[in-house]
Known about the structure:
49% of the residues lie in helices and 10% in strands. It is mainly α. The protein has five helices and three strands.
Amino acid sequence: MMTNIDLDSYLRDNGIMPSQQRLRIARVILDKSDHMSAEEVYRNVNGPWPPVSRATVNNTLRLFVEKGLLQKDDDEKADIYHSINPPSQDSQESAA
């Protein structure tokens, strides 16, 4: 599990305008050490907060892949799994 990173700045530094939904999705992915399917991300994002649609989850995951924050694993036929490309220790220290 990764902690103590400024997700807002991390997304901005990678050309992504942070929204509450994008920050929640990024946090879910960072808190899991395993690869996750879009469905797993969707189930984990939706909790006590207002709901996030499946379309928002899928679009955000695609955007994160496009910007190089996630890596797509196409080995699974039933689902697409994603793993986070976390910020480097250097970028975390320079942001502090």
